[in-house]
Task: structure prediction
Amino acid sequence: MENLRPILWLSLAFVLFLMWQAWNQDYGVQPQPTAPQMTDTVIEDPDFVPEDVPEAVAGEIDSAAPAATPEAVAVADTRRRQINVRTDLFDMVIDTRGGTIVQADLLGFPVDLSEPPVPVRLFDERLRGYVAQSGLTHDRLPGIETAGRAPSHHAVFATDANRFELASGQDSLRVPMTWTSEDGLVEVTKTFVFTRGTHLVEVNHEVRNFSDEPWIGRQYRQLRHGPTPSRESFFLYTFTGAAYFDGKYNKEDFESLRQSPLEKRIEGGWISIIQHYFMSAWVPHADEVSALYARAVQAGTGLEYLIGLHSEPMTVAPGETATFSTRLWAGPKSQMELSEIAQGLELTVDYGIFTFLSKPLFWLLRVIHGFVGNWGWSIIILTILIKLAFFHLSATSYRSMAKMRAVAPKLQALKERYKDDKQRMNTALMELYKKEKINPLGGCLPILVQIPVFIALYWVLLESVEMRQAPWILWIQDLSTRDPYFILPILMGVTMIIQYKLNPPPMDPIQKRIFMALPFVFTVFFAFFPAGLVLYWFTNNLFSIGQQYVITRKIDAAANKKD
Result:
């Protein structure tokens, strides 16, 4: 085997192409979503009102309360309104029908760096059918007529104001809304509690029972999302879909929910819908036992997907008051914050199969950032540390390449001498390698070992919201997107040409042309990669050139003395 490096470099090029393809699916222009054809497993509602909660799980949980009739919905719509809630982090719209969050802008995260900034919209009922719903269901007692004594997300709440705002110096904001049963015997106050400095919202349902009978009910929480564009790929991509934690982290893409609806019982845990950089999640208390459900439903606007939790029953004695409480996260996939809220919630920052490498890389990157305060310089310092970690391994590779370079004339002479006899040529090559103490694989294996580290760092830079819109210097104002002027990719291409000049020339003319083309091919690939990743590769190449140049000079000097 004359030289395995071309195969390895081509393999790396193919991997990079696949990563570019995955990147393009996140950043490129996407087609408008269209509702796919329905399958028999999709749950249809003839009244175009989605069901509230799951069917019975193992016979222990009652089925959902029946959906509201079209007539009831029409009456309710005349009384419903939307209220605006503004805090330091949210500009949110809550519909009084069900107290459903139908829109949420994240004020600290602009869509891009344009002026004036337009915030990222997480919940968006109109365009994506993406909402956060919660409500109560009532367990009917035998022989007792208690219909309509729990507000689902179809019920209309009353509120005293159309706008709530977190005032300067105020640490929290309460947004209450009230529902009363038709017979006046049950009153429920639903309260959203916003706290300054966090995207975690507390949601409480306070139940007052004025009847002579015990009230027994449960709370449910669910996230709904409309269809998304197809994201087929040969490689990993940033996941958009449902996720939950039942002791381990699980993901369910929307398509799978059409084929296989999900029902299971969990203790604690959480449910979420995740996308690139951002997520929403309902987080029950750690000791709460819930029925988890996820499925596709046919609503009035088309196919929708939902994932939810239905709690165990709570009894409210006559004349007494009890409160259901839960928490909603609506914001960035910030690992440090999420890890403090619930077990496994930080796993929504999904690094894929190289998580075991990506997590320590991100930890180290964050530590460095704590000292230098700039993610671009942090990437450079991290690159240097990685380079030092692989210093001896790289030195082995460069010594092998330098020796191959020094004996290149002899290799070419053997090729000319035995060009018609492959077997004798290979025998002669092995003898020459043995004589010169050259390992022909020595230049390949170190590169192969470093590829997983490169891919792991790729996912750190692509998936970590901390990198989003993080500036470096001058023209690089967002390390998570491509270099706007392609300066870094061009500089990286130049370093690859220099490395090509330092490497031993391939004996095969086809291999030689491939090696000459690779810097240009990589430059085109990297032109569309996040600037932070190109910065890493460029910095790595600079230090590699320095190390390889010193080693090559020493090997060449030793070879000249020997001759």
